[in-house]
């Protein structure tokens, strides 16, 4: 039996289809037996590595399930065929099971990762076409785009960005907070840098966990010719150092605070005027018999007592909310420079604008005659409700975004990362 297994091994190395058929005729279970007894060099893996297409197809025809059998490093035949760039073999293996595209080896790599690392562009296209989602798999918190930059594969990087890279995926960060532009600057890959700056929506001023932008990383290297070329490209794209980016962020916050101050002041003025001069005005002459009709009292209290209460509550909430915004903005407290505070002001402004919208709605309701203006009032109600709905969506969206940012901040606080090395060592993901 050992002699036949040795012959099978030699046949898989040579791709000898005649010997394979002869052995299978003599012992139809020899492939199953070798798979069970030998966890290392299995015939299908050997033939896939060496590119013996006919040999592989013969095995797949008789035992298609062997395409999903892992070796000692948890690699499938598709892993080895992809790493070696055997396109026909890859097609044959995919025809049996495209699920193999998603299989991970002991390093966490799927066949697409290995093909991208080795620069097998034709294989990458086949694998992406078979299972596009395989490109989304992470390897040690790195995307396949990070792997392409780490292994200097700009052609494959361009293809993956064009076919699978949306904005979020393109700007994904690794465990050290680096996006692919950070890495391209680290390695001084001018071709990749120009590709990212000219043809993608890469974030040129994104900061890693050490607070460094791509421009900061560039400044740490030698001032040679490549430095000048990359500096020119980054400058044209609007890249700046982290300190300047932080200053720009502060300027943006200052503009937002100034805008909020102006809006709050206007709304507070409107609320004060509406409170002192409500819809329908006030009684000019007093009544000796009715205490609600004294001079200076609101007419609305007499004609629409319930609506007046709603009007007064909404108007007061809007007035107090905007006064709170003004008070906070002029207080000069140190926490006012944080984005969280801006979100709090936005929520207060939402309360104020919603209250004033309801105040307007009640005013139109009591001032419009019935039933002649019923259709008009319904239109007004609909418009106001749509406005309130849009404002609510805005607040909810920014709340979700704030929660995500806060969660990432806590994660970095609890699990701090080491400072990224300027020239990281390229890992051998394929082990070949």
The percent of residues in helical segments reads 55-70%
Q: Spell out the helices and strands N to C.
A: HHHHHHHHHHHHHHHHHHHHH
- Poorly predicted regions are 417-431
Give me the secondary-structure category: mainly alpha
Mean pLDDT: 85
The rounded Rg comes to 34 Å
Membrane topology: Multi-pass membrane protein
Protein name: PGG domain-containing protein
Subcellular location: Membrane
Transmembrane segments: 307-330, 342-367, 379-404
What would you say this structure looks like, in words?
Residues 417-431 have low confidence and may be disordered. The chain has 432 residues and is mainly α. The longest helix has 41 residues, at 374-414. Helix 6 (77-84) runs parallel beside helix 8 (111-118), helix 14 (190-199) runs parallel beside helix 16 (225-236) and helix 17 runs antiparallel to helix 19. The chain is built from 21 helices and no strands. The radius of gyration is 34 Å and the shape is elongated. The chain crosses the membrane at residues 307-330, 342-367, 379-404. InterPro entries: Ankyrin_rpt, Ankyrin_rpt-contain_sf, PGG_dom. Keywords: ANK repeat, Membrane, Repeat, Transmembrane, Transmembrane helix. It is found in: Membrane. Residues 251-366 form the PGG domain.
Brief sketch in words of this structure:
Residues 251-366 form the PGG domain. The protein has 432 residues and is an all-alpha fold.
């Amino acid at each position: 039996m050992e002699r036949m297994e040795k012959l099978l091994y030699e046949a898989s190395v040579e791709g000898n289809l005649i010997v394979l058929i002869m052995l299978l005729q003599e012992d139809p279970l020899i492939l199953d037996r070798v798979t069970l007894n030998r966890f290392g060099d299995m015939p299908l893996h050997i033939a896939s590595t060496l590119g013996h297409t006919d040999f592989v197809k013969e095995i797949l025809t008789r035992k298609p399930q062997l395409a999903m059998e892992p070796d000692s490093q948890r690699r499938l035949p598709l892993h080895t065929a992809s790493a070696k760039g055997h396109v026909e073999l890859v097609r044959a293996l995919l025809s049996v099971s495209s699920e193999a595209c998603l299989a991970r080896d002991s390093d966490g790599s799927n066949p697409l990762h290995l093909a991208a690392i080795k620069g097998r562009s034709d294989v990458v296209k086949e694998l992406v076409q078979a299972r596009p989602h395989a490109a989304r798999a992470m390897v040690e918190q790195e995307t396949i785009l990070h792997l392409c930059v780490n292994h200097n594969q700009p052609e494959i990087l361009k293809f993956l960005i064009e076919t699978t890279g949306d904005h979020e995926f393109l700007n994904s960060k690794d465990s050290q907070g680096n996006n692919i532009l950070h890495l391209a600057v680290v390695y001084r890959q001018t071709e990749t840098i120009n590709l990212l700056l000219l043809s993608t929506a890469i974030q040129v001023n994104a900061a890693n966990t050490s607070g460094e932008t791509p421009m900061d990383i560039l400044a740490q290297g030698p001032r040679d010719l490549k430095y000048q070329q990359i500096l020119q490209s980054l400058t044209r794209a609007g890249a700046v150092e982290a300190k300047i980016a932080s200053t720009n962020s502060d300027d943006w916050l200052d503009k937002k605070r100034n805008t909020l101050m102006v809006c709050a002041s206007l709304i507070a003025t409107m609320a004060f005027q509406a409170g002192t001069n409500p819809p329908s005005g006030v009684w000019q002459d007093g009544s000796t018999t009715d205490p609600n009709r004294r001079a200076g009292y609101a007419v609305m209290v007499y004609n629409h007592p319930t609506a007046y209460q709603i009007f007064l509550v909404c108007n007061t909430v809007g007035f107090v909310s905007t006064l709170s915004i003004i008070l906070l903005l002029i207080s000069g407290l140190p926490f006012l420079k944080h984005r969280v505070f801006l979100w709090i002001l936005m929520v207060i402004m939402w309360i104020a604008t919603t209250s004033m919208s309801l105040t307007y709605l009640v005013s139109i309701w009591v001032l419009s005659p019935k039933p002649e203006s019923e259709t008009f009032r319904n239109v007004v109600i609909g418009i106001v409700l749509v406005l309130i709905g849009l404002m609510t969506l805005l607040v909810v969206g920014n709340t979700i975004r704030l929660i995500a940012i806060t969660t990432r901040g806590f994660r970095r606080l609890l699990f701090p990362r080491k400072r990224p090395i300027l020239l990281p060592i390229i890992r051998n993901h394929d082990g070949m």
